[in-house]
Amino acid sequence: MLVFSALVPNSPLLLPSISKEGSATTAKTGEALDTLADELYATHPEVIVLISEHPTIYKNSFSINVADPYTFNLNEFGNLGFEMKLHPNIELIDRLQRSLRGSDFSFTLTTDESLNYAAAVPLQRLTKNLPNVQLVPICFSELEAKDHFQFGQAIKDSIMNSSKRIAVIAAGDMSHALSSDAPAGLTKEGEQFDATVQELLSQKNTSGLISLSPELVAKAHERSYRPLLILMGMLDRISYTPDILSYESPVGVGYLTAEFRLT
């Protein structure tokens, strides 16, 4: 059963072991993640389904990563001693892949034992008090927006009908184009994308989210839209209340932390 759902950023700056300065500049987000970690702990999850970028991404196929254990590689950021291991929930992975094999979705299993920062950041920030929680990592594709929403719908029943207590977390940063020194430079679409997504989430306007202009999304240079759409598909026809805990863009990149409280 689904007990928790949220959208979180996954910038490496959110790990103090990588950037002590980043911890100061992202204090608002850090506080929101601490609050979210407490909320997650209170739901007593047995499994976390994490929707994020993986080392292997397929253009026309969604994927679930299967490895035991999952380890995390942050060497590219100079963090050579990052120690974290999680184990999969094979039962849920099998349930998901069996249901997807009978659908129209292009889907594959991958075996990336070492996950990257996109998974490490949210898991390290949110699961400090959940040492025995199991993991199911799902990766988005490059297919259209509606495909991601429908993929979320396709896996919803497997989540809802599971005997396990399951938390679903979509992870990714918002626009990378919010200032002249941002990773993607400055575009007017960056600020527009971030503001529009927050408004649509607050209004529970999922159709508006799916219908965002592909040009707007592309020029925003974001990494959260597709994970968010999968999550919204999983929440389709489920009663929830959106709660935007924080938004900031201290380095020209948007960090949005939001919980979708099940009601």
Summarize the structure in words.
By secondary structure, this protein is α/β, with parallel strands linked by helices. The chain has one domain: Protocatechuate 4,5-dioxygenase, Chain B, CATH 3.40.830. Helices cover 37% and strands 20% of the residues. It is built from nine helices and ten strands. The strands form two sheets. An eight-stranded mixed beta sheet has the order 5-3-7-2-8-1-10-9, sandwiched between helices. Strands 4-6 form a two-stranded parallel ribbon. The radius of gyration is 17 Å and the shape is globular. The mean pLDDT is 94.
Question: Could you give a short description of this structure?
Answer:
With 263 residues, this protein is of the alpha/beta class. Helix content is 37%, strand content 20%. The chain contains 9 helices and 10 strands.
Q: What is the CATH architecture term?
A: 3-Layer(aba) Sandwich
Supply the number of structural domains. Answer: 1
pLDDT under 50 segments (min length 5)?
Answer: none
How much β-strand is present in the residues? 15-25%
Full CATH superfamily name: LigB-like
* Backbone CA Rg: 17 Å
Class from helix and strand fractions: alpha/beta
Report the biggest beta sheet as strand number plus sense, adding barrel if it closes: 8 strands, mixed
Quote the average pLDDT. Answer: 94
Give the neighbour order of strands across the main sheet: 5-3-7-2-8-1-10-9
Helix and strand sequence: EHHEEEHEEHEHEHHHHEE
